[in-house]
Each structure stands twice: as structure tokens, then as C-alpha cells.
Amino acid sequence: DAKTTQPPSMDCAEGRAANLPCNHSTISGNEYVYWYRQIHSQGPQYIIHGLKNNETNEMASLIITEDRKSSTLILPHATLRDTAVYYCIVRGTTSGTYKYIFGTGTRLKVLA
Amino acid sequence: GAVVSQHPSRVICKSGTSVKIECRSLDFQATTMFWYRQFPKKSLMLMATSNEGSKATYEQGVEKDKFLINHASLTLSTLTVTSAHPEDSSFYICSATRPTNYGYTFGSGTRLTVV
């Protein structure tokens, strides 16, 4: 079973920040939080990941709560091309091979 | 870097025939690859873990004789849907472990339609 829960859908106005929440209350100390997105009929695309510190890259920011039981992906200035399904996944350390179990994800619709 | 190529992107086959889907890591070696299946408007469902040089590990409920997986080299894994039927029509996606901590890279998917 997926270790994460996300709202099924969200809308966001173009140019505004999109904040996508994820609950992972059973996360273990060595598990990372990964975010991917899937645009219609394509494979998932990596966005960002983190362990316990907040992270930022050219695509997004990841805010992880201090207890690590939840996180928020922030797309600072959403565009129409950001319309996609966003998946939050928890995964173990890279010392082993851990499979991704996808939850239902959040379908983000960016509105013009 | 870390590109995964999946081929074909789209295939239509007749009921009863077999179809092979290839997943290649183009610029890195992948000892482990994963195969997923996705129905319309649903999430990805893990089918199996493909390990180079050994047998694949299938998830519960996935028929290993129906979905044959071969991982003969560090850059290639194949999924063969044998004796395909219309209910096997789906979107199949592979992924491969990247050599860094940046998670898994996914292929672009294969849309299989069995008529």
C-alpha cells in the first residue's frame, strides 16, 4: 500500500503559487520524500526530493515539517504547462533498491 | 543525463499474439528496473522488479507467465505480454534506478491496444 495520502485534485490560477500537500505520517527515519509529476500519456518526471531539510531547485521547493509527517511541494509561479498529476512517494536510502509505490496523486489544473 | 528509453511508444496487436516492450537506460547502467501498468485516470501499479542476470520479482496478483520479463544486460529490460487479450490493453511504463540519489528515471511509456 502507498505510504502517502494526497488530495485528489486542486486548481491554481496561472502565475500564482501552487501548494500541493502530502501526508506521510508513517515515514521512517531513513526514508526520503520524492515528488514526481505525470503529464498526460507520459512517464513520470522527477521534480525534487528531500530527507528533513527544505529543498529548492529550478522547478520547485519542498517544505518538510519538523516531525516529517507531512510535506508541501510548492510551484512558485504555476504555468499552464504545470497541469499534471503530482505524486508524493517515500523511499528508503540509496544503499538498497526500494520500489516506488504510487498513491493516487493530486491532479493539478492550472487555470488561465 | 540518466535517460530511459522505452520502445515502442504505441502498439496495436491482435488477440492471441505476443508483444515485446523494451526499456533501455541510455547513459547509465541499471542493475534494477521496474515495470508498471496504468489504467486510464488511475495511478501507476507496480507489476514487477527486474534484476539484471536473475529472475524478476513479481507483485502479488501479477501473472508471471503472462508478463515475461528479461533483464539480460545492464542497459536493457524487456516485458513480453504473451497471448495478449483486450483486457491487457493498458499503458505500460518502465523505470530504472539512477546512479545517484535522484530517485528513479521513468521511460515515456508504451500504449498497448489489443484488438
Q: How would you characterize this protein structure?
A:
The complex is a heterodimer of chains A (112) and B (115). Chain A is globular. In chain A, strands 1-9-8-3-4 form a 5-stranded mixed sheet, with no helix packed on it. A 4-stranded antiparallel sheet of chain A has the order 2-7-6-5, with no helix packed on it. The model of chain A has no long low-confidence stretch (mean pLDDT 91). Chain A starts with 8 loop residues before the first strand and ends with a strand. Chain A has strands at residues 9-13, 18-23, 32-38, 45-50, 55-56, 61-64, 70-75, 84-91, 106-111. In chain A, a hairpin with a 5-residue loop joins strand 6 and strand 7 (70-75). With 112 residues, chain A is mainly β. In chain A, 34% of the residues are buried. Chain A is built from no helices and 9 strands. Chain B has 115 residues and is an all-beta fold. Helix content of chain B is 0%, strand content 53%. Chain B is globular and about 40 Å long. Chain B starts with a strand and ends with a strand. Classes of the chains: A mainly beta (112), B mainly beta (115). Chains A and B meet through strand 3 and strand 4 of A and strand 4, strand 5, strand 9 and strand 10 of B.
Task: Tell me, briefly, the overall form of chain B.
Answer: globular
Measured between the Cα atoms of the first and last residue of chain B, the distance is: 37 Å
Oligomer: heterodimer
Structural class assignment of chain B: mainly beta
Helix content of chain A: under 10%
Individual helix count of chain A = 0
Largest sheet of chain B: 7 strands, mixed
